[in-house]
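Task 17 of the worksheet. Students: predict the tertiary structure of the chain below and write it out as structure tokens. Keep your answer in the requested format; marks are given for formatting as well as content.
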Amino acid sequence: MSGRKQFDVGTALEQAMRVFWQRGYADASLDALGIATGLGRGSLYNTFGGKDALFRQCLDRYAETYGTRYEQALTGHPGDPVRAVEAFFDVVLARIADPSVPSGCLIAQSAAQAPMLDEGSGACVRALLDAQRRRVRAALADSPAAPGVLDDLATFVVAVNQSLAVLSRAGTPDPELRAVARLACTTVADTLAHAAAGHDRPATSGDAG
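Model answer:
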């Protein structure tokens, strides 16, 4: 029928997301987006509202895809926050190792280019990072550690996640990425164990005496 879109919007959005993921916002030209989606500039604008609007929709799609997996990992081990964090990193490493998707992480890639984003896109990236941090923080809640310690641990876990994405794009081998994740889990476990022993933070050499 005349005027009816002859393409699948979801498929086009998936292809556009991969362009942003692989190239980053700055290098994801309209030509590259058009080639990936099979759409001309006019169709891109009419369907998605321009590059910035399309970018935000791709961020949302990425978050829906992987955010659900993070949520399942972090909520799948009630009463065992360390295992929840381990499961979270298992999902992260599985995404990184997946040969069918670009390396790294779209959110990390976008955060690195934050100065180039418009206000709405920058706010979207920050909101997605905040959502990830809230998920991790909720998984740590069943712990005797002080709230401030748990806040710091949640930020730490998210920071390690973003670092893994950057390292993977630089070609760091999988065993090295897994070593980083293991050390992060050990840090979480040691900090929570220290809190369970009645301390608010791990002891340092300066605390002796």
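Marker's comment: Confidence is low (pLDDT under 50) at residues 202-209. Residues 51-75 form the longest helix (25 residues).
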